[in-house]
């Protein structure tokens, strides 16, 4: 599925296997170049605490810039990076860069902001991932609670005991752990009870369906209730309108993220950002 294809998309999903192969190799080359030539950048999207209307955390979203193609969407290059194994080097870069940015924000109005990075399930299979993250935090003199990680439910459910233990180590140290895109995978509410997590991020497709359909609204409300009963914070992704902001606030969501508040932006713009909602 070519989801989220932007204007500068270079991705053409066709049935022609040669085209697909070309795409795969082309993107792999682009990514390898980007890694070697500072072509990667993290953008940051504020997460709004709906009670206080304040921003206390944000999500780091990867951007890849190529001088010929312009920006390439992570929806396109992350799956390719996972397939080619490049995701490990890219993931290492993201961990390091997020910590570097957090350190750069110390002494500014953003010094208490938590940054949540996205992890690929592949990274979780590295036996020393937790250690690596904690030592990056140490290297930049940060508290573990300044960092968060996001994993999709499928990546976590598939995890073996070793992977769950890594999450436990991180959570015990104080790293915030979120389930991303909740509601799109094989969501079983039961397994949530067993996982070392702090919050649920309800996928934006859910909110958009809930706007049109009473059943989906009922399911979203149920997820919020169950999340709260399990002691989890609940965030809704993809809030784009005032009406959606009102609905998620009324339904008791704790946090929201979406274009209505702010688009993902370069680190420098975060300093100027003020919530006006
Ligand atoms: P995600 O983690 O679910 O990130 C949210 C995506 O929704 C982002 O797309 C964000 O720009 C977009 N978004 C935010 N608010 C709105 C809204 O109101 N409306 C709409 N239509 N979209 C909104 P983005 O930046 O293109 O990232 C796509 C996906 O790529 C992410 O989904 C995540 O799964 C993956 N990704 C991004 N950065 C990284 C990374 O550093 N590592 C890994 N492994 N995956 C990443
Ligand atoms: Mg995410
Ligand atoms: Mg998400
Ligand atoms: Mg996603």
UniProtKB/TrEMBL annotation:
<protein>
    <submittedName>
        <fullName>EAL domain-containing protein</fullName>
    </submittedName>
</protein>
<feature type="domain" description="EAL">
    <location>
        <begin position="24"/>
        <end position="277"/>
    </location>
</feature>
């Amino acid at each position: 599925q070519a989801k989220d294809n932007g204007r500068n998309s270079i991705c053409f999903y066709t049935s022609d296997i040669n085209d697909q192969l070309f795409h795969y190799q082309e993107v792999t080359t682009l990514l390898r170049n980007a890694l070697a030539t500072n072509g990667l950048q993290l953008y940051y999207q504020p997460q709004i605490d709906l009670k206080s209307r304040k921003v206390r955390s944000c999500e780091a979203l990867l951007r890849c810039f190529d001088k010929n193609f312009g920006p390439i969407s992570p929806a396109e290059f992350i799956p390719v990076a996972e397939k080619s194994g490049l995701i490990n080097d890219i993931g290492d870069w993201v961990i390091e860069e997020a910590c570097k940015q957090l350190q750069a924000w110390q002494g500014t109005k953003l010094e208490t902001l938590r940054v949540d990075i996205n992890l690929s399930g592949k990274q979780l299979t590295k036996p020393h991932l937790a250690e690596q993250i904690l030592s990056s935090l140490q290297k930049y003199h940060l508290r573990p609670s300044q960092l968060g990680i996001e994993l999709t439910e499928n990546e976590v459910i598939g995890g073996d005991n070793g992977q769950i233990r890594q999450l436990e180590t991180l959570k015990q140290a104080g790293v915030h752990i979120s389930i991303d895109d909740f509601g799109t995978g094989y969501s079983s509410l039961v397994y949530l009870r067993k996982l070392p997590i702090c919050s649920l991020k309800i996928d934006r497709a859910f909110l958009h369906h809930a706007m049109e359909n009473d059943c989906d609204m009922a399911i979203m409300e149920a997820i919020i209730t169950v999340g709260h009963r399990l002691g989890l914070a609940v965030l809704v992704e993809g809030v784009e309108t005032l009406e959606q902001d009102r609905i998620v606030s009324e339904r008791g969501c704790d946090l929201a993220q979406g274009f209505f508040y702010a688009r993902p932006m370069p680190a420098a713009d975060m300093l100027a950002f003020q919530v006006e909602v």
